[in-house]
User: Which sequence fits this backbone?
């Protein structure tokens, strides 16, 4: 085989390998969170620093935070936080009512795979209910 033909075959192989990696999706965590009959999606992608990830307001009564720490190639952990807003005053801090940590290995799947099942949390004097479930997709083997 000639040197130029070998170079072309190697280059074609590398381009094919690069294209196949670009098609693979990065991990995506999708949580369906419901309070008082209203649902919303909270999504998370891998981050190296979990602290700047903001929590999301859920109906003015709860806050929900989903964090995936790691990279597209390797997830180190997934942590979910649920907070209750005892008071809606601006100076009042939400109270942590649940923190759940998931550690590898995570099931490799290109399609959404259930991670949490349906979770029901109750907080406050009126026992307000927050419901969530999360799926994970794009995890590489």
Assistant:
């Amino acid at each position: 085989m000639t040197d130029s033909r070998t170079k072309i075959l190697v280059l074609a192989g590398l381009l094919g390998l690069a294209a196949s990696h670009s098609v693979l999706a990065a991990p995506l965590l999708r949580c369906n969170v419901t309070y008082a009959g209203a649902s919303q999606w909270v999504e998370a992608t891998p981050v190296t620093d979990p602290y700047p990830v903001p929590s999301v307001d859920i109906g003015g009564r709860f806050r929900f935070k989903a964090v995936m720490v790691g990279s597209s190639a390797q997830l180190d952990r997934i942590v979910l936080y649920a907070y209750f807003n005892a008071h809606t005053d601006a100076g009042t801090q939400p109270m942590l009512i649940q923190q759940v940590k998931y550690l590898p290995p995570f099931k490799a799947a290109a399609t959404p795979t259930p991670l949490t099942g349906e979770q029901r949390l109750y907080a406050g004097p009126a026992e307000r209910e927050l419901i969530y479930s999360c799926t994970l997709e794009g995890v590489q083997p």
Observations:
- Residues 25-137 form one domain.
